[in-house]
Design a protein that fits this description.
Pfam families: PilO. By secondary structure, this protein is α+β, with helices and mostly antiparallel strands. It folds into two domains: 1-69; 76-185, Alpha-Beta Plaits (2-Layer Sandwich). It is built from five helices and four strands; from the N terminus they run ααβαβαββα.
Length: 186
């Protein structure tokens, strides 16, 4: 009996001593599993964010290329600098560089198109090869330039020798752009 009482006492003592430890171990194992599941979800979200950032950076690179060729505003100064730099690079003397801007009535009539444009009138003097190279460079430029007419003629001044390769060039071009409207910005 004494032996049975001792076993019962030890069993009760072990039960009350081990039960809290077993419950603590069980709850900790449950917490670990739930945190592992949460960790997996977070890794998935982090991977999605990384992919989104990579896609965004690729889109930004493409946007900057598109914006340089087909900008959202007219960039008159950039076009003027572009034409004058190209003319200078090919030793052309600029005689005229004008912008023919549409007035508000024309813009309202053509308001159905989101693509806007303005005309540029350019004339210069130079040798034939330089003029041809200038036009090629202008057409290969990243900024879109739609040349509507090119007129080539010989200069009529007395200083130009007959038979020289100096020529006058006049070109009319349209420069397109796509303005971002207020409702598209939001």
């Amino acid at each position: 009996m004494e032996l049975a009482g001792t076993f019962i006492f030890i069993a009760i003592f072990l039960f009350f001593a081990i039960k809290p430890t077993a419950l603590a171990i069980s709850s900790l194992v449950g917490e670990i599993k739930s945190k592992e599941i949460a960790n997996q979800k977070m890794k998935g979200r982090i991977n999605n964010i990384i992919q989104a950032q990579e896609s965004f950076s690729q889109a930004q690179e493409k946007y900057s290329i598109l914006e340089s060729g087909f900008p959202s505003d007219p960039n008159f100064y950039q076009i003027a600098v572009n034409f004058s730099t190209l003319a200078k690079n090919y030793s052309l003397k600029i005689n005229q560089l004008d912008f023919d801007l549409p007035d508000n009535n024309d813009q309202q009539k053509n308001n159905t198109s989101k693509i806007k444009s303005f005309k540029i009138i350019f004339s210069s003097t130079g040798d034939y090869q330089s003029v041809v190279s200038f036009i090629k460079e202008l057409l290969n430029n990243r900024r879109l330039v739609n040349i509507s007419s090119i007129k080539i003629s010989q200069p009529k001044d007395k200083d130009t020798l007959t038979g020289s390769n100096i020529i006058n060039i006049s070109l009319d071009a349209e420069i397109p752009y796509a303005p971002i409207e207020d409702n598209e910005k939001n």
